[in-house]
Design a protein that fits this description.
The structure is a homodimer.
Chain A: H1 4-28, H2 35-38, H3 40-44, H4 65-69, H5 74-80, H6 83-90, H7 92-124, H8 128-131, H9 139-142, H10 155-190, E1 199-203, H11 213-224, E2 229-236, H12 239-264, E3 271-273, E4 283-285, H13 286-310, E5 315-323, H14 326-334, E6 345-348, H15 364-384, H16 386-395, H17 398-404, H18 409-413, H19 415-448, H20 453-477, H21 482-490, H22 496-504, H23 509-529, H24 531-543, H25 548-554, H26 562-579, H27 587-607, H28 620-644, H29 656-677, H30 681-694, H31 700-704, H32 729-741, H33 746-755
Antiparallel strand pairs in A: 1-5, 1-6, 2-5, 3-4
Helix pairs in contact in A: 1-23, 5-27, 6-7, 7-10, 7-26, 7-27, 10-28, 10-29, 11-32, 12-13, 14-30, 15-19, 15-20, 16-19, 19-20, 20-26, 22-28, 23-27, 26-28, 28-29
Amino acid sequence: MASLQDIGVAAGINSLSALVFLLAYSILRLQPINDRIYFPKWYLKGIRANPVSSGTVRKVVNLDPRMYLRFWNWMPAALRMPEPELIDHAGLDSAVYIRIYLLGLKIFVPITALAFVVLVPVNWTNDTLAKLKDVTFNDIDKLSISNVPPRSSRFWVHIGMAYIFSFWTWYKLYKEYQIVATMRLQFLASESRRPDQYTVLVKNVPVDPDESVSEHVDHFFCVNHSDHYLTHQVVYNANRLATLVENKKSLHNWLTYYQNKYERNPSKKPAVKTGFWGLWGQRVDAIAYYTAEIDKLSEEEVAEREKVISDPKAVIPAAFVSFKSRWGAAVCAQTQQSRNPTTWLTEWAPEPRDVYWRNLAIPYVELSVRRLLMAVALFFLVFFFMLPIAIVQSFANIEGIEKVLPFLKPVIEANTIKSFIQGFLPGIALKIFLIILPTILMIMSKIEGYTSLSSLERMSASKYHKFILVNVFLGSIVTGTALQQLHQFLHQAPAEIPKTIGVSIPMKATFFISYVMVDGWSGIAAEILRLVPFVIFHLKNTFLVKTEKDREEAMDPGSLAFSITEPRLQLYFLLGLVYAPVSPILLPFIIVFFAFAYVVFRHQIINVYDQKYESGASFWPDVHRRILIGQVISQLLLLGLLSTKEAARTTPFLIALPLLTIWFHLFCKGRFESAFLKLPLQDAVIKDTLERATEPDLNLQVYLEDAYIHPVFKGGDYQRPVIDEESDPIIVATKRNSRMGSKNGSSQSSQKLFLR
Amino acid sequence: MASLQDIGVAAGINSLSALVFLLAYSILRLQPINDRIYFPKWYLKGIRANPVSSGTVRKVVNLDPRMYLRFWNWMPAALRMPEPELIDHAGLDSAVYIRIYLLGLKIFVPITALAFVVLVPVNWTNDTLAKLKDVTFNDIDKLSISNVPPRSSRFWVHIGMAYIFSFWTWYKLYKEYQIVATMRLQFLASESRRPDQYTVLVKNVPVDPDESVSEHVDHFFCVNHSDHYLTHQVVYNANRLATLVENKKSLHNWLTYYQNKYERNPSKKPAVKTGFWGLWGQRVDAIAYYTAEIDKLSEEEVAEREKVISDPKAVIPAAFVSFKSRWGAAVCAQTQQSRNPTTWLTEWAPEPRDVYWRNLAIPYVELSVRRLLMAVALFFLVFFFMLPIAIVQSFANIEGIEKVLPFLKPVIEANTIKSFIQGFLPGIALKIFLIILPTILMIMSKIEGYTSLSSLERMSASKYHKFILVNVFLGSIVTGTALQQLHQFLHQAPAEIPKTIGVSIPMKATFFISYVMVDGWSGIAAEILRLVPFVIFHLKNTFLVKTEKDREEAMDPGSLAFSITEPRLQLYFLLGLVYAPVSPILLPFIIVFFAFAYVVFRHQIINVYDQKYESGASFWPDVHRRILIGQVISQLLLLGLLSTKEAARTTPFLIALPLLTIWFHLFCKGRFESAFLKLPLQDAVIKDTLERATEPDLNLQVYLEDAYIHPVFKGGDYQRPVIDEESDPIIVATKRNSRMGSKNGSSQSSQKLFLR
């Protein structure tokens, strides 16, 4: 185990590496050529069109020495923007996301202060470890609960602290939930008019043999929401078309690449092989070849486009139904429409950018089978993921390779290569798996059939959180793979499990301290350097960019990647809560992480990230729940740890804590969660009334017309299929009927005709 | 352990006792004097006013010998009424309730047949038990899985059967859920107009310093449901008034008693003592005393009535809000009204008879604290209920009594009394506890704050189910109290628990067979005899009845007591599912129970019970869920049992079963449950349209006026406090505003004025 000094050295090294990253960043960001990598947000906002012009700034390299002297100034700059402006600039999702780091500070700074004032002296002034002859210990262990002798009445202090820490955490979590809920409602209330405010996504439209989907939807809502229904848009199955458009874009990139090449070196016409991946086949002129290919694809695309729009089978049984008022949409989204609760399912439409189009048409039975399969798959992924990796590793050793590819034998047997393979290959399978894991989880969420990008991210995050909990947290504490742990837990008494883990907790403090420094400190510093986008941008800039528009497209601002960063950051909450009453020495490292990450991510969302959608912080209930899961785990582990200390008199007082935590969760759920799921009618009425007063002549029909068309139709030559509704006898009859039914007078019906 | 012959004898004895009950019933029911005990339903329906008159029937005793010969004919008569008529006659709750017994038959008759054809030969043709020298066994054990040798490949048959039984159960459960859901929707659709169809219960109305609750509700719904809001009724806190009315009624009973006494024996004026319970105090004339007391109470009642109606503080922050259409009410019940999800809570109003008035005004925080406390209390009740009983028992022995009441010593020491106390007293504490247990659970549910009698019954049933599961089922299998079990389970590996219990399962078959016979067969036969109401009616009839109206009130038809009978009957499902693959010999006894109970309860709901409310079978999701809980338990126990048989090759195939059961539960929940929670808008529109077409001149306002007043005001001199709404400037302004806002023309506004 490491001593305090070792930890100091490790902290020094990690701080240094973080510092190097920061320095590199500070220098690179000042180069105008990198401006689009480190400040893409301003370009996308249209505020910046060129690198900042100052007297001495050149086009490529910045030589102004004064700017290098001020290279730290991005940090205060990142903190300067006030929150309302930040919400305006980067959206509520981002603004609330960085509040998670702030919440970490709010929770842990007072806890750390208290722990150092109270717990550290209580632990330090014992000599249990010094008395044990056969145990090596160090200063860090002397600061932890391990140093308190069994049956000591000092454990009352730890239990008291556990209660104080819990109450403080609940208080802060409650406050934060309240603030975020208010922010969300204010955000929704202050938003300008958006199509999704009037629109409901209707899924599982039942098949009607006599009517098209469009007619069926129209009739259903004319009857059941007669006073409020305005219009609807059917959804086309444009998956093949989207693939074609994608392919065409890639071909365009190649065409540009060869055109650039030719322009720069007109003496030699670029050529390309027509076979697989350009590796073999006939050699032809590249520019002519790609031009021809693009023409071919364009024709196909036009045909497919025609087919999708005209073929009634290309309409999937889902629709975006719009209403005359936000009230009407809110009502429809929150109520059950049909006797059969698996048809005519309504929910708030995600905003158009947020729709995940491929999942809109999954029937109920299929959906529940898919979710069952994915739940089983997740279980196996979490507990058995080591199995396939072990198999790959068993092949990826020297004997395995020599067996499969005997001709490589002389090369492999060379000493340097041999040691490289032996040292590196077994680990690489695991590394690759961990890198693609978020993608696997995202694919699983897509199979589960969620219909918006935001919910897909939330579900992936939830899966990733489980994986990290079992394989990183428990896996680091309890030796052995997750599979062995599972076996052990099944064959161990439930009351024994917290003991087994709890006992190991204090011993793992130094391990987690270095984890926090490596993964947390250096990881965040690497985040700001953006190495991957840096390389990709410069590659694209060199080979593909011709016009300013191309350069615009070469920019990759990235986004927050909630599904990856949030579960990782939950680990720090968990570590902080677990170690606060046990080994408070870990806490300062976590505080540094939260503070540093807060500044970096605030800078990134101001200058870099461009969110793909805006969900109005709908992820907060998940964040809140996961922190509470961490708290319950920490309380159970403390319970287990203390029960091994033979503190029989004191331990039972801890049993109430996890129960209270669960109750607090239910309390907050009832108190706040619906703000993230439903729009209160009161708010809808206020916005409707305001809008009617300020814009009495608004033509919503026109406004909503093309809001929810598949992105491949956007800006293209998409023609809405015209249905002459007023001549359709059924619709006219239904409308007349519903009009009479709702006892509305003639003036309203003319209103209706005008609106439609 | 009992042999097949012993079981036969026990079955004979129990059948005989059931037969005696039935015979007694058949004779008693023919006596005209008992007509109001055994056929109260017909009196309440107004179809019967006097005992059936036939030529030879006298007033008190029936002497017609022909009728005694036909004494069995109530059974076919009970089965003869077709289901639609039954629903009409007794309500959907009762009709669906007896379908639970029918479902038991549908599930278990084919399972029994299959088990006897396949499993019994497979078990019987082994000689494992015969080979074991030191074990006593009998024919019943030879029929069970215990007779199959370890590591036998015959276990494949048991596993296959477990799958077939499970699939069959799911199929029947799915069908039944579908049928009940359809019945419920048809019932709701075919119902005649009822106030609760238009009404929503609004709870947690926030306090407004400037307005009364009534005004606040009115303004809120005028604004937020401007086109649909009709009227509302505030709720008065009439708990004290209800107590006064109750007391007065009891005094009236005494007055009648003494008046009757005086009339029958005019020579002696009845006297009464004024002290506590009439035991001491001044001796006064009884009739004069009670008349004076009643007058005093009447005055108090009038004053309290006045106070409740005029005092604004007597209005609690809840209201029944009515809408112009079922559509409007359905929308309001299913949506969130306010930003703060703990205020303006809306739900479908229970029908007026179903409202539990005392719980309408509990704030959110208090409610969640109450639920936490009750959850903890239930845990202690289930696992620690033996503790207080043991304490009572330790006092209730001879030494304890002698210590507290030494003067009783000579009496107690007498031999017969001594043996009575020793044999009877320790058991009586437990008996009393078990009798009052449902009442305790109901009180706990009331503390939890549910607002309708139907939900109170459902919640009590859920608590009782847990109690039976732990203390009757597990308690009978695993020796020791529930507390010891809990301790054992906490200190045992999770994988060991099903093994421990599973192994004991086959050994307990004979115990459960006698349980089914005593509790099931004889219990049901006792139900039809109605001993307690029999005694009470005859007491009342002798002492209190003067007029026919009094006799009407002396009748106690009782009701189904869902909260008690349903959890008990769930035990039979559990036993059937657990023993089907293990000891099929239990199954015929359960089938007899279901068949017998079906006939008896069908007879009772036709002739006796009078339900206090009609919830439209809203309990079905609970019934469905509990049967599935039983199934999961049975599958886990089979898994545990087989894993002790060293059938390592076969056992893993059972792991999928509990997972599939849970998935089936989720699937059914999504598919059907909302039919029991929400009214689909489609159905609301159909009923609204129909009503408008058939009764265009309906004045709903008048119809709903007094629907939801507290029962103590019903039929009395209740005067609605008149609020001249049209002169209230705010309401008029709001209405005008909302009218303009919703762009309705002038003809509608006049309509509105007329309707209000």
